[in-house]
Design a protein that fits this description.
By secondary structure, this protein is an alpha+beta fold. It has two helices and five strands, in the order H-E-E-E-H-E-E. It has one domain: HIT-like (HIT family, subunit A), CATH 3.30.428.10. Strand 1 and strand 2 form a beta hairpin. The structure holds adenosine monophosphate (AMP) and zinc ion. The site of zinc ion has 6 residues, from helix 1.
């Protein structure tokens, strides 16, 4: 599996930087965002160092499918209220113009009662 020793999220995967874990399996890690915008805010990442959505290859299709089907389960587990009155927001910033700050693909899952700090 490709990792980048200088990447903060690879360091979280390796346990070199602590995180508050939401979910983990062989391929996927989810953990609380350190600077939450809302009552629920966690990040879901592939353990493999994929730089951004712009770097996805066909071979990542099953992994990304697993991530997307996992998100509603984790959102409910973390306290997002049920659809349709509740729900959640899924955001993946990509590149400079997309507002990406950490260069390891991550999906923000944001939810809970409003108001939120952002969005
Ligand atoms: P983005 O702008 O989409 O690249 O967002 C990066 C996100 O990573 C931000 O929401 C940060 O709060 C979050 N973040 C940065 N460092 C950590 C960390 N060590 N643990 C948890 N979240 C982090
Ligand atoms: Zn990485």
């Amino acid at each position: 599996m490709h990792t980048d020793p200088n990447c903060i999220f690879c360091k979280i995967v390796a346990g070199q930087i602590p995180s508050k874990k939401v979910y983990e399996d062989e391929e996927i890690l989810a953990f609380h965002d350190i600077n939450p915008w809302a009552p629920v805010h966690f990040l879901v990442i592939p353990k493999e160092h994929i730089t951004s959505m712009a770097h996805l290859q066909e071979r990542h299709a099953a992994l990304m499918g697993r991530i997307m089907t996992l998100i509603p389960k984790l959102a409910a587990q973390e306290g997002c209220n049920p659809y349709p009155a509740g729900g959640f927001r899924v955001v993946t910033n990509t590149g400079d113009e997309g507002g990406q700050e950490v260069q390891h693909l991550h999906i923000h899952v944001i939810g809970g009662a409003r108001p939120w700090k952002k969005g």
